[in-house]
């Protein structure tokens, strides 16, 4: 063996070093506190340690009625002063009422002014001036924190929306308003807050039942292993039971259609044609026609004949596919360590996802605070323009646009780095896709090398290398990093194009015309098909790389033409394998799920006392079912790779050897028997 695709290997290493450099630059310029902490109108973090806002962890909005929706609030684009506070208001109050009573009720003013700008302590200032300068809110309403922001404390009483059991409130400007006026400003918040209690109950269920969930997943792992081991004995039985079951069901369908056809004979109106009655919204009308049942019967007869003919003409290839499945089970039995290799792939992908997510957050939070003019008047020409909060009050903006504020908008900058943040995010996504595909490719090549060493062993298992999985992993890293990176690069480019198309489709959804929608749909469909095709080619190319050690392009070409020369065998093996593995996943997930259902609902007398008392028994139940399916998928993906590798080795064996003493076959005795003497006879020169 020698190193393959060296240039791509060098590029891959350089890109990884550049990716690390991008992460370092992002970490230097970014600040995740901008995501963790809400930011007030002055660009200061709420709740940040060693700052005046250390004990003020919640963001308060002076006039929440100016905010159109919670999305606006969360994005910090609400045109009102935003202030860090230690707690949300717990009562109704207006500046007018507090101003009128501050002389003999100073406690009310002391409570109210904690929601005013820091340092403001002038209750004698007129309401008009306070509202204009936004020194204090004109009103406060009972609120509770959500996403570290104060939202009205909505509740429903007898079907009526209330805030603190009141349906009206004073807006601080001499008007009494209904609490429904707050609905638009905080639309949907009440439902989300109610969902928090459900979330807490789900968390409690997980806290009580987590070890039982782990036990269920362990049982799923054992059942998956047993299923794979038993496939060498049951693969043929399961497949033929399914096939004859399908034939029997279709046969019953044919008989039922004939019975309905004969039963409708002589009934008035049953001899009409579909064309005579035209289109009907009630499809039961068509079931009263003999022609409908005749059509069903003809279609089912055609399907039945096709299946029977396929079984007759493809019987030998089906037997080969079943034999390969059994051989795959035998190979895994000799190399059990391969079943746990998906854990390595999972760890590598988890590292890639974590690095990408952290880098994306740091890139998104890079930059300095940007302030913009937030004006109440829609015709203000200064609206949404950048401003400086230090000098804003000295400009004429407040005169031309009364009530305008210079408030924090987002984080950004004008430097070269900040101008290319989007490009950096795109590069971050692209390298992430490249690394994930490389991790998958490394796993496929490693498993293929291990199983190929099993197939090409003259005496099984005596001639199998001592540590086939580790040896294959070492070969893949040492010699074929460039080839694996090349295949992963091609796939990453296509996936990035698909991501961009999805992004464009999302952004242009409201404005695109019919032709644009059609074009985008066609492009998305084409690139989806291309991605599926490339995954198929790459998978088989990695198998050829593991067997022969050639470069990616040569291996892909050899694998493609080898598969095309055996296209019928490929189709049969693919469908037989897909069916049996799908059946295995359903059996594992369904069996463990049924067991979990009886356990968590305390219907197993032996374990009734051990079963935990839950708020929602379906929480651990769904977790066990989904987890069992994923566990089975992990084990069966190794099995599928094993079968694909053995199949390519089998095809190569048939083409390169003739069964003679000089060129003996490496296939197992069961495959020898299926092929028969004709195919096993020496080839003529």
From TrEMBL:
Keyword Transferase belongs to the record: no
Keywords, in A-Z order: Antiport, Cell membrane, Glycoprotein, Membrane, Transmembrane, Transmembrane helix, Transport
GO molecular function: antiporter activity
Main location: membrane
Compartment(s): Cell membrane
One Pfam family linked to the record: Choline_transpo
Membrane topology value: Multi-pass membrane protein
InterPro entries: Choline_transptr-like
Segments crossing the lipid bilayer: 7-28, 210-230, 237-255, 293-314, 334-358, 431-456, 477-501, 579-600, 621-641
GO cellular component: plasma membrane
The reaction(s) this protein catalyses: choline(out) + n H(+)(in) = choline(in) + n H(+)(out)
Family recorded in the similarity comment: Belongs to the CTL (choline transporter-like) family.
Function: Choline/H+ antiporter. Choline transporter.
PANTHER family: CHOLINE TRANSPORTER-LIKE (SLC FAMILY 44), CHOLINE TRANSPORTER-LIKE PROTEIN 5
Protein name: Choline transporter-like protein
The species this protein was found in: Nyctibius grandis
Gene name linked to the record: Slc44a5
